[in-house]
Structure formats: C-alpha cells, structure tokens
Specification:
The structure is a homodimer.
Chain A (H helix, E strand, L loop, with lengths): L12 H22 L8 E4 L2 E4 H6 L2 H14 L31 E6 L5 E7 L3 E7 L13 H9 L12 E5 L2 E11 L4 E6 L4 E7 L4 E8 L7 E7 L18 E6 L6 E7 L6 E3 L5 E4 L10 H4 L4 E8 H9 L4 E3 L2 E5 L14 E7 L6 E2 L5 E5 L6 E5 L13 E3 L7 E6 L4 E6 L4 E6 H6 L8 E6 L4 E6 L11 E6 L15 E7 L8 E8 L6 E5 L27 E6 L2 E9 L2 E2 L3 E5 L2 E9 L8 E5 L4 E5 L4 E8 L3 E6 L12 E7 L3
Parallel strand pairs in A: 13-18, 34-37, 36-42
Antiparallel strand pairs in A: 1-2, 3-4, 3-32, 4-5, 6-7, 7-8, 8-9, 10-11, 11-12, 12-13, 14-15, 15-16, 16-19, 17-18, 20-21, 21-22, 22-23, 24-25, 25-26, 26-27, 28-29, 29-30, 30-31, 33-34, 34-35, 37-40, 38-39, 41-42
Helix pairs in contact in A: 1-3
Enzyme class (chains A, B): oxidoreductase
Organism (chains A, B): Halogranum gelatinilyticum
Subunit structure (chains A, B): Homodimer.
C-alpha cells in the first residue's frame, strides 16, 4: 500500500501506519488548498488507485478516506505475533470446526482464478474437500490425460490453462437443482460446465467473437442461458482488421445454451461489460461496465465521471433474434444493442443504459429480486437499481432508487436475507454492513444506512454470505475473499496466498465477528454455496452414463488385439491388487490404445494406471472406464503401476509392457 | 473392504460391520479346520490382502485379526451423522485452531502423490498455506509457462506429471537447515529440489538406469547425498535387451549430489528396494524391499516367507567407487552390491542383507539413531534393527533386536521422542502406540510393548509425529495419512479425498486423541515438519539471485526490438495498474520473446501476464523477472492483462499486442 518505489520496509506495521498518516495529511492539505478549483489534474495514488480529486470532493470522499484509513490503520497488527485484539473474537466465538466424522452444513464452490480449477470447500469448516480441474490439466485425477478429457480440452482451443472467476449453480424454478456448475475462463473467452453427479468437467465452449469472458451468470429461474460478458473490446471479427482503430472495437454479451453449450446469440454494446447478474424472474440481466470512454489506455478508461450499467431485456433480445434483426459473425447471430441501434429506439429497448458514477465494478441482485446493487469501485457508493422500474421508466436513470455512501473502493455486495447488505471495500480493507430499505429511503450519498464495519486482511474482492445469491440466504456466515494476506500466515515465499476470512454475521442481528483466516492458493475470485442436501453426487460411476460411448472391460475381456501394422488395442480390467493382464507385448513405434475399467463397486477404491516414461496417467473410479492413446516409442520393459494406494498389496500390483525393438 | 463383485451396498455402515463379522467367522472356521496342515494354499482376501494362512498362524494373527476387525467395526459410525463418539474427543480436546492473524507453530511439507506437487500446511491448524508445483505444470504460479521452468521440465524428460512420495528437508549437522526440500518422482524415476528461500522448484534430475524412484532420503547429518530407491526391476540398460528375462533385471540405489543434482553412483542389489532412511551418523542407509523372489507377478513377489532389508554402508560404497570397482552405464558408476558380489565378501560388505518376515514396507530410524524400525506389511510385526550392530555382527540377522507384534498391515512408524513408537496399521485402520525399549527386551512376537490403539478413518499409510525424523521431535501432534475417507466428508463424486487425521499425543504421556479430520486431495504419501523459525523464506525476490541470468527491466528499458526477420524481443516493467508499455506491434508469425520485471518491492503485490489465445501466463513476484517465448500466429488485437487482482484499477491495467497480417 506504499509507493512502489519506496525503499522503506513496507511490511513493517508501524511504518505502514506512518505512511498512511502522511498520505492522509497530504490529501487533506491538497483538498484544502485546491477546493475552489474544480478541474485541475491533481490526482491521488492510493493503493494503486488513481482518483481525480473531483471524485473525492463530489462524493464527500475525504470523510470516507479518513474513516477508511483510520480503519485500515486500526486493523494492523499491534504485536509481533500478527494478532489483532479487536478482531480475534470474544469468548463466544461461534464454533466453525466440524468434529471428526461429522459433515459440513454447506458446499462452497470456489473459483480458482488462473489455477484454472474449481475448489470445493465444506462450510463452516473451510476445509477443501476436493478440487475439480476445469481449464487446467491435472495429474491426481488424470484430467487431460485420458483421451476423452484430452480431446475436450483440445477442441476448446488446446490451451493448458484458464482463468476462472465466477462459478454459478444451475437452477430449476429459482432453486439450485444440484445438476451443474458453470464457470468462465477470462483468459481465453470460454465457459465450462461441471457435472455435479461426478464433480467432473464435461463440456467447454470456446465462445466466438469475444475476448475475456469475465462476468458470468445463469439466467434465473430455470437456467435458460449461461450469460457471459466480453470484457475486452476487440475488432469484430478479430482477424487483423481495425488493429489500431479502437472506435471499431466492440464488446459482446453472449448467451450459451446450458445443454448443447452452443452460443445462441450475442449482443453488441457501447463501452464494455464487466460483472453480470440475473434478476429472479428471467427478464433482466444486468451488467456493470467501466470503459464507456471506449479508450485503450488506463487514463482514458477512467477519464469520465459517468459510466453506464447495461440492463439486458432478454425476451426482447430473443424476439429480435427471431425476427432476424442480427448480423451473423462466425456462425453466431449478433444483435445490435448499442445506444444508437434502432432496437433501442422503440417502446421496448433491448438494452437500457443506466448512468452510474465512474467505473462501477459489480452487480448483485438481492434475495427478493427487487434491487440490483452496483458497487462504485472508483466512487465510494453503491447504486441501487429498482429492477421492476427498468421496464417502466422512460429515463433509465429513474430506475436508480438509492446510492448510499459506504467507504473507499466498494467492489461487491452480499446479503443475509434479513434486509442487510454487506459490501467489500477494497481500499479500506473492510466489510461494511448496511440497511437496504434505509438506503432506498435515504438521500443520495448518505452514510446513515451504514450499520457497522469490520476490518478484513487485506483488500477484499468478492464477498459472499452463504447462499446470498438465492431467495433464501443462510444468514449465518459470510466469507470475505481478500486478495492479499501479507503477514497473516507463516511466510511461504514471494507468491503469497490469498486470505478467505470467515465472518459470523448471526442472521444479521449480531455484530460481525471474524472467526477464521483461511489461506487460499491464488487466486479465487468468487464462490457460491449450496445446502449439503442440494447436491447428490454419485460415489461410484453409473456405467449406464457412458453406455455406447465406452466399453466396460471385464477380466475376461482383458487382452491385446493388433489393429494395424503399427497399432494395438489393449483392454484391461482393474481391481484391488490386480490388472486384467500381468503383461503385454507391443512393437517399438506402435500406437497403443489402452482401455481400462475399474470393475469394483466399492466406494473410494480408485485405481490408477501409470506408465513410466510415457506420460500416461489414468485415474479410474469404481465402475468407470478410461482410455488413453500413446506411442510406445522406445524398446524396453515398462512397469504399469497403480497410483492410488488401494490395498496392502498395492505395491505388488503391476502389469508389464514389453516393447520389442522393430527390425 | 468388501468383495469387489459384491452387489450389496458396501457403504452402509451396518452392512459393512455385518460383512466383517461374516469374514471373521470364515477366517476362524478355516483356521480351525486346517490348523494341522501347514502348507496348503488357503488364502484370505481381506482388504485386498492375500495372506497365506501360514502367515496368520505363525504370527498368531488370528488374535490380531480379531482385534483388528473389532477395532475396525468399532470405528464405524453408529449414527447417521457419521460421528464416532469414542473418537470425537473429550471436553478438553486440545486446541488446534489458530486464531485469525496468529501463525502456526510448524511448517508441514506434504507430498502430493500423482498431483505432482508439494503442499505446505500450517500445523496444528492443518491449513494449506500454499502449493509448490514440482513435476506438474501449474497456472496460478505460471510454473512451466515461463521459459526457465518450461526448459527445466523439458530437460528432465518433458513429462507433464510426476508421482511424488517422500519429501525430505536438507540437513546441516543433523538439523534441518531450511535451505532445500528434495522429493522423488516414482512415475519417471526423478528427484527434484525445492528452494525454500522462494518455495520454488529449482532443479529436477532424471536419474539414469532406474524405473520408479520410490523411497528417498537425505544422508544425515549433512545431506551428502539424496538417496533414491529404484523400485521396479528392469534390464540394465533398459534398451530392449532381456525383455522377458527377469533374471537379468535389476534394482539400483542411486546417490544424487545435492548441489549439482548429478547422479554420482548407483548400487545394484538382489531383489528390489522400497523405502529408505538414513542413520544419524552418515554411515548407514537402510532400505526395505519386497521382492526377494525377483518375480514379475504378484503371486511370485509375495511367495516367500522371508525378504531382506538392505543396509548400505555408504563410506564402503564410496571407497569401491574410488577404487574403480564399478561398471559404468549411461555415465554412472554402478557398484555391484548383490549378495554374490566380491564387494560383499570381504571384512566390510558394502550391502548387508538382513532377513525379515515377508515384504516389509518401511524403514524409519528413531530420533536417537539407535534403531531402525521396519514395519511388516504382510507380517503383523515391526522388526527392530540395532544400527550400531550392523557393522559389528557377522550374521546380519543378529542386528535384529526386537520384533513386537503390533496388528494387521503395519506400514510406517513414527516417534514422540519420549521412547514411544507409533505404527500405522493399514488393515486394522488403527495407529498403535508401543514402547521401544520394552519391545527390545520382550520376546519376539510379544504384544506386551503395545500401550494403546486408536481407530483412524481409514487405511493409513504414512504416519508422522511432528519432527519425528529429527533428533528432537515435538511429541505433541501426530498425523495419520489415511488413504480412504469413504463417508467422513460431504460426498464429492467418485474420486474421494484422502483423510489426514490430526491426533494429539501430548508428549506420549496421555491417551491418543483424534482432534480433526482433514480432507486431502489425492494422494499425499508422506510429510515432514519443521519449526516455523527453521524456514526463512524471502517475501520478495532478491534480484542478486538471478543477476547475469536474467535482466531487470525498468520502465525506461521497456520497448520492442526486432531481433530477426521473424522474431522480436519485447521488454516491459510492471507495477500496480501499469505495464511498461501500453501497446506493441508485431507481425503475424513472429516469435515473440517477452521479458517482464515486477519493479515493485512491496510484499504480496504480485503481477501476472496473460495473453488470450496464446497460452501465455506469467506470475511475477516483486523484484522478479520472468521471460516467455511464443509465436504470434494469428493477426488481431490481443489484450495483455494481469491475473493478480493488484489494485482498484486492476481491471483497467492492460497492454495491447497488435499482430499485423504479413503480406
């Protein structure tokens, strides 16, 4: 949080406090000195944030900065042990441990950022129950190693990583149905689907015409589409045309069919698109945006005082597509949703542009479906949008019904279902609790709706109360996904973990209480929760699910068949201590297809197939079949072994591949 | 644990108990019926273990089986909530939570099995602080994406995964020095080194002539070598010769230099090699083994009643190498340590073959360095080897000074530093605590040294008390690394997590108490612990560490240079909100080398470099420089963005690569 070129030790708490105080004095001095001027170029760099002084003045941000900085300084450790007396909780810290053998109450699905995976946590214990590789390849599950997942990744662009941000659970009738989870890849503009029967990725779509699918949501209440925001404006199509003509760049909203995973249509907008959420009734999808300027450099992108949130009228867009009012690019119908489009001129515009303070970051629709909350990022406010009004007012600005001032760097908002909202403050490193109805009634910029603030450590992005995105939040626990952990854990080198903090909110009736710090491997962005009983995973495979697509190899079926001059098909069963055949012989240069079925039906008895020096690695759960194709390119003896310690004779459990030299 | 072809629901606790009882009755009936016969082929499949009845009878295993089965049944949940009243602890369960902002007491380094990574946990909280990719590629840290790590992985065989089992910390004067961690890759016969200043893998050696480097240890007290056991017997060299002449296969012990990471010498043995540990004085390294039969099928491998632990006399081996008594294969001197070798005929054999009951699994040397414990696996005993006697006795069997009977399926042993050993029982699903000196004094096969057993859930492999592998164990906490978790956590599909259970042993004075279940992504094998103050990681990069190897790119240095007809070098600094250049232009088909320095010096402010559709992904910690080379193969606009959310203007932080079409 200090200047990047500072030579002082910026990790020393006292030093940091001192720097803050100095910065604060500078800000106050500047403000005092320059108040009469309204258009000078004085700017403040604070935690990497370059704010024009006007933003501060307009929004009364000096007071905000004072509160924020004081709060931040107060949250710094005062002792050498890194503890913070104010936040370590009282004697009645709510119990979040789950005793041995007992189960957690909720599933939490965490995006893994550029690790490319989804993580499944138990709540409230915060234990990581498993990982689901999505855009990455992963050895423990053999994901990307068997032919099926390898081909899926190859067909989706053949990238080896992705950057997932926003996990979304499928809904039926407005409730999580436990069937699928959808998540974006910002890096390569993709959307993936995870099958929650098997906790396995089963489809990835490379969305045409967009770069950086960022915000993602399912269209409530019945998952009609997966909606994805194209964040980066590019030429359309991006084939070398208009390279340096940014005025011809564009951003698109994409609608992907949840079953076929095909991109059904796209909508072109002015500016760009950031985060998206769906109303509860299936009509409105609302996107934040930060580059109404349509600039290509940071100064330009944050130049104007106003940006526009885009509210997409989905049935109106569908109607335009049906009527053929689109151009087709790379096979996808693209509807013109820019402000000047004729589709926005009639009685029912397909996209409504709602003015907000500059560069708002997020959109979250509260449990009742009445309001969408748009956190200000570069404004210390949250803009409250009345969703019903979107279709009623002639000026979209009239759909704004409140704008409480909450603190510096508001990024995301979550809900307890009892009328309270909780907003993460990136710069203040706080979570702020506020009263929704009070905020609607209060004057714009009022801090009166604010109930309480709690320090978090440090720089929170998403904030999620358990089941806040449903119509029935739990209201007991809240997670602050903090981007920085700095000194909160034993040091582990220059790549620090994030810090997901568990905060007790007690149905919103109590004071917030910080209960646990939880280190998170970089870099979770968001999470979503479901009641334990909502998800019903299989504990072994149901072979009916792949009947016709893959064989089920029994012990009797095990054997080698030559399928060509340079190709063989090896089939093998596997069970504890034993592969279906103890050896097989192939010739140097053969392409080997190896099909293996785990014939056991006992839960948790998984078997692996590893072949040294051939990069072969399968993980096969009970009743599952996996297949891999590789080349036996060097003569020699290669022992096939099981990577899952499955029995007391696990080490002796092997098969031998003999690769004969070709004459 | 039920028959693999059973159609009953094997996950129903009551059903499992019933099955166990049926199996037990069968065993007892068989034993009664056949006691007079001593060499029949009746075998028992129990948890995948095929034991000849003779093993049971000889070792009095019927009683063991009864204890074991009863223990196992007793450990099953009796209620629907999966809880186990006997094990959930008393009111004074020791506190293992670490309050927010406080630090753990110990680092725990976990092998990640076929995930290919090392995991770093805080103890006692069991929180995962970070992961260190080793044999895998990994997006969050950009490991395998920058040229340096990509080339390291390529030169080490170009495999995309590995199977790491045994993490070892470097020692100076018999104490952990906090400098390096070494770990094996069983899949491809490799050994890797992790630099603990940066928590990053900095070297990988593909060990010649061996398949499946399994057991691994450093030679105490000064890390003279990293020793690795070649587990799978293969032809030497494995080039197509002797394909189906197993009598010519061999296993090798390899000694790798900890600095150069070169393989210095190897030792050929009879049978194979499994786990290894070093004595405390630098002379002896002791390996378990399970295939004295030199068979290639499971029945043959577990046919004989005896196997041989191999004790390697390191100075004697070094002397043989110095005297030129070796053959060289693939550049490595190989010393003949087989029983018939002349090097084993003189006064000072280089390898001593110590007979033990069949197929022993592990070797762990206790803190005083007096004894090596060899758990029986297929024998219900632990063999105690007096290390000093190895150099004194003429018959190596005389170095065995105790053989307590501990239970079914003993795999590994750990220590509290107060005279107690704790052995994991794979089949019994228990940890057994026993008295070392009592075991030395007791008659062979006595259960008298056994103090206490505790159920674990389920099927433990390694067991580690904190710092048990040092001369000064902590003695407070013990971890049981259980291979199966079955019903212990919310279900997450057919690939179950392991269950690392935290057990309080209270200096060995109290009863063992199960404190926490901890789900572990497949499949940790082992772990090692260090006091927090032993490890001193850097929190930002020290650029002196790469001076001369990589440039440090300042804002001023940022720019594009054409280096050839089809190649360019792009240099850029990066700091919060800003790359050193906001755009650069290349031509279609150019090979682009991109060198980026994070010029900040603030802890935890990491920056990423992601280029959509080019699979480019760097993670750059403060003061670090990373380089990547890729081809710009399609014309278009590609936005470069930061994958670490680093400031409030993080989303606006971008650079643009314009790829011009080539005429």
């Amino acid at each position: 949080m200090s200047d990047s070129t500072s030579s002082a030790d910026s990790t020393d708490p006292e030093r940091v406090v001192e720097e803050y105080e100095n910065q604060l004095e500078d800000v106050l001095a500047d403000v005092e000195e320059t108040t009469p001027r309204t258009d000078d170029d004085l700017s403040l760099e604070l935690a990497g944030l370059q704010l024009d002084r006007r933003d501060f003045l307009k929004a009364g941000a000096v007071a905000g900065a004072m509160t924020g900085l004081a709060g931040c300084a107060g949250s710094l450790p005062t002792g050498g042990d890194g503890s913070n007396a104010a936040n370590t909780g009282s004697d009645d810290v709510p119990e979040h441990r789950v005793p041995p053998g007992e189960h957690d109450e909720y599933y939490g699905f965490w995006s893994g950022g550029h690790s490319g995976e989804i993580r499944v946590l138990g709540i409230p214990s915060m234990r990581e129950l498993t990982r689901i590789p999505v855009f990455n390849t992963e050895g423990a599950r053999g994901y990307g190693y068997d032919d099926q997942t390898d081909e899926m990744l190859e067909e989706a662009g053949d990238y080896t990583w992705g950057d997932n941000h926003h996990p979304n659970l499928s809904e039926t009738d407005g409730k999580y149905d436990g069937e699928y989870l959808y998540v974006n890849d910002k890096a390569n503009g993709r959307i993936a689907r995870v099958n929650l029967k098997y906790f396995e990725t089963d489809a990835i779509t490379d969305v045409p015409n967009v770069q950086a699918v960022h915000g993602t949501c399912v269209l409530s209440p019945d998952t009609k589409y997966i909606l994805g925001n194209g964040e980066f404006r590019t030429p359309l199509p991006n084939d070398g045309r208009d390279l340096d003509n940014p005025e011809n760049y564009t951003s698109l909203l994409s609608a992907v069919d949840p079953e076929s995973m095909e991109t059904k249509w796209q909508v072109k907008v002015d500016g760009n698109l950031d985060i998206i959420d769906s109303g509860k009734e299936g009509r409105w999808a609302i996107s934040s945006a930060y580059n109404s300027e349509e600039a290509v450099e940071i100064e330009g992108m944050s130049h104007d005082d106003r940006d526009y949130v885009k509210a997409f009228d989905i049935p109106a867009i569908e109607q335009a597509v049906e009527r053929g009012k689109y151009e087709e690019v790379n096979g996808v119908p693209i509807v013109d949703g820019t402000q000047s489009s004729t589709l926005n001129k009639g009685d029912r515009p397909i996209v409504r542009y709602v003015p907000t303070p500059k560069s708002p970051h997020c959109v979250e629709v509260e449990p009742n479906g009445d309001y969408a909350m748009i956190a200000g990022k570069l404004s210390p406010t949250v803009t409250i949008l009345d969703i019903d009004k979107l279709g009623e007012v002639s000026d979209p600005a009239d759909a704004v019904v409140g704008r409480p001032k909450v603190g510096l760097g508001p990024l995301h908002t979550t809900f307890d279902g009892n009328g309270h909202a909780y907003t993460s403050l990136f710069i203040d490193s706080q979570a702020v609790k506020w009263d929704i109805e009070k905020a609607v009634e209060a004057e714009e910029g009022s801090t009166d709706p604010v109930i309480e603030k709690i320090d978090v450590h440090y720089n929170p992005g998403h904030i999620q109360a358990v089941k806040a995105m449903t119509t029935d939040p739990d209201g007991e626990w809240l997670i602050s996904l903090n981007k920085l952990s700095k000194d909160r854990f034993l040091p582990v080198g220059p790549i620090h973990p994030d810090n997901d903090q568990l905060i007790h909110i007690g149905q919103g009736e109590k004071e917030m209480e910080l209960v646990a710090d939880h280190p998170a491997y970089p870099e979770p962005h968001d999470c979503v929760f479901a009641d334990a009983e909502t998800i019903s995973p299989a504990t072994t495979w149901d072979k009916e699910d792949y009947a016709g697509e893959k064989p089920f190899v029994t012990e009797k079926d095990s054997g080698v068949e030559r399928t060509g001059e340079q190709s063989v098909h090896v089939k093998s069963s596997v069970k504890r201590s034993e592969y279906g055949m103890s050896e097989f012989t192939v010739k140097e240069g053969d392409e080997v297809t190896l099909t293996v079925t785990n014939i056991e039906d006992v839960r948790d008895v998984i078997h692996g197939v590893a072949i040294p020096e051939h990069d072969v690695n399968l993980a096969i759960a009970p009743q599952d079949t996996r297949e891999v194709t590789f080349t036996a390119d060097e003569p020699g003896v290669y022992w096939i072994y099981c990577t899952y310690f499955c029995s007391a004779l696990h080490l002796e459990m092997r098969s031998r591949m003999l690769v004969e030299p070709r004459e």
